[in-house]
Write a structure and sequence with these properties.
alpha+beta, 8 helices, 8-stranded mixed β-sheet, 22% helix, Jelly Rolls, 283 residues
Length: 283
């Protein structure tokens, strides 16, 4: 799999899903009930899993929520960003437990410092490999992954690669996901399918030479987001935004996409014939 500099900042892939069918199922199953969204809740995770998620909370909490959790290695998620997980850890948490909270407390490491280790401990070849920190290990579909959404994941398997950690992610009206980086794309990639959104919701990513910020409409399109570069989301609307977000170990179809937003710093030869689009940007 290719590292971030060999892939576009974003790309709309060359296949679509039936967005009306997915959205109707979403409402029929009651997935618009945000109380079901416990993907960052203490009671639904192992302690190691919560330590890993504590790193993510730095970017998904409001300033007030972050202040309440200051200094804590284990904490619940907030209300601005919530997840309904469709897959779960495919292993035994007790066997794979690394006692991260105790280890990091002994080292005096805060969540920001721990974030720098995430890339290493999610690599199976690293001596400190922590399976619960590895998104690729979350490929076991759960009770929420039923009906058409399961078919959508099968489509992603066929067109892009193996489906791992998957969730419905809601970003509440007026909230934001702060700029952050995730693991490099040679480990896994992020796929987004907007389900409920508004034209005032934008997602951005910053490459070496170019920043792209755009709105992804809920029209059945399947998007690649290069999560290894700094990226963010702003919901400047009065609508709660919902995306189906899928971690995939595979990159099929990304460089073949007709609509790519390339970083001028590195344009891979494979993508030289692609339509390099310019959304709102600063170079």
């Amino acid at each position: 799999m290719l590292k971030r500099q060999h892939l576009p900042l974003m790309a709309k892939l060359n296949f679509k899903i039936d967005i009306d069918k997915l959205r109707n199922e979403f409402f029929e199953l009651g997935y618009d009930d945000w109380s079901k969204y416990n993907g960052l809740s203490y009671g639904s995770n192992t302690e190691d899993g919560l330590v890993v998620r504590r790193v993510l909370l730095e970017y998904f909490l409001t300033d007030e929520e972050k202040a309440e959790r200051e200094g804590k290695l284990v904490a619940d998620g907030g209300e601005a960003y919530k997840m309904l997980c469709l897959t779960e850890f495919n292993g035994d948490p007790n066997v794979h437990n690394k006692n991260l909270a105790a280890k990091l407390a002994e080292e005096g490491m805060d969540p920001r410092k721990f974030a720098r280790r995430m890339e290493k401990i999610s690599d199976p070849s690293h001596p400190d490999y922590t399976p619960i920190a590895d998104e690729k290990m979350y490929d076991k579909r759960n009770k929420f992954c039923t009906g058409y959404v399961a078919e959508v994941l099968d489509m992603i398997e066929q067109n892009i690669g193996h489906v791992a950690r998957t969730r419905y992610a809601v970003l509440k009206a007026g909230e934001e996901i702060k700029p952050h980086l995730d693991i490099n794309t040679d480990k896994a990639v992020r796929i987004h399918i907007p389900l409920i959104t508004h034209e005032d919701v934008v997602i951005g990513t910053k490459g070496k030479k170019r920043t792209v910020e755009l709105h992804m409409p809920a029209d059945g399109s399947v998007w690649f987001l290069n999560q290894a570069y700094e990226h963010w989301v702003k919901n400047n609307s009065d609508v709660d935004r919902v995306h189906l977000v899928v971690v995939v170990t595979g990159q099929n179809g990304i460089l073949e996409a007709n609509e790519q937003y390339l970083d001028e710093y590195t344009i891979p030869e494979e993508a030289s014939c692609a339509h390099n689009l310019y959304a709102e940007e600063n170079v």
